[in-house]
Amino acid sequence: MIGKSALLDAIAGTNRGLLASDQQKQAILAAIAKLEDLNPTPRPVAATNLLDGNWRLLYTTSKALLNLDGLPLLKLGQIYQCIRVETTSVYNIAEIYGLPYLEGLVSVAASFEPVSDRRVQVKFQRSIIGFKRLIRYSSPTDFIQQIEVGKKFKAIDTAINSDRQQGWLDITYLDHDLRIGRGNEGSVFVLSKA
């Protein structure tokens, strides 16, 4: 699909948006809008077979995520959003790199509830921030399995008041390997199936 190729070409070299110039950002947003008009999945929330799985972030305008790269001596690694449709759970995982042995992880676990054909309400429940070695992090899938069995980690592992910490996400494009979402804070997310 030409629209998809144009978007991926526009995103290339921007390091998820960290390196994008204002001109590139405008071109990317235009490419996103064009691709959203071609969405092959008119009811993305109901397309559970496509939605379920681990998604890797390709591009975002989210300042909260991009600002993780601004911490002293640390660099933002891969960012994943892992959706478990069966349990209506979503896990956001950001890998952080820096000095040897100080690689870290910032993760938020949440539940989601479909509220329309393309919108989900998200309620944040748990935050985990710590060193990958102490957490024994090896992959998103393994980490999520540990969370789901109730493991407490040697990290800053805290419950979040979901009444105060919630938002929504519109899924505006979904196919077998690409997903685009727009959040309640105006951020855009482009992800590929990992």
How would you describe the overall organization of this protein?
- This protein has a single domain (2-193), classed as Lipocalin (Beta Barrel).
- 24% of the residues lie in helices and 39% in strands.
- It has helices at 2-11, 22-36, 48-51, 63-66, 132-135, 140-148; strands at 53-60, 75-84, 89-97, 104-114, 119-131, 156-159, 166-174, 178-183, 188-193.
- A hairpin with a 6-residue loop joins β3 (89-97) and β4 (104-114).
- α1 packs antiparallel against α2 (22-36).
- The relative contact order is 0.18.
Key features of this structure:
globular; eight-stranded antiparallel β-barrel; 194 residues; single chain; 9 strands
Short description:
With 194 residues, this protein is of the alpha+beta class. The chain has helices at residues 2-11, 22-36, 48-51, 63-66, 132-135, 140-148; strands spanning 53-60, 75-84, 89-97, 104-114, 119-131, 156-159, 166-174, 178-183, 188-193.
Topology:
Layout: H1 2-11, H2 22-36, H3 48-51, E1 53-60, H4 63-66, E2 75-84, E3 89-97, E4 104-114, E5 119-131, H5 132-135, H6 140-148, E6 156-159, E7 166-174, E8 178-183, E9 188-193
Antiparallel strand pairs: 1-2, 1-9, 2-3, 3-4, 4-5, 5-6, 5-7, 7-8, 8-9
Helix pairs in contact: 1-2
Quaternary assembly: single chain
By DSSP (H or I, 4+ residues per run), the number of helices equals 6
Content of β-strand: 35-45%
Residue share in helix: 10-25%
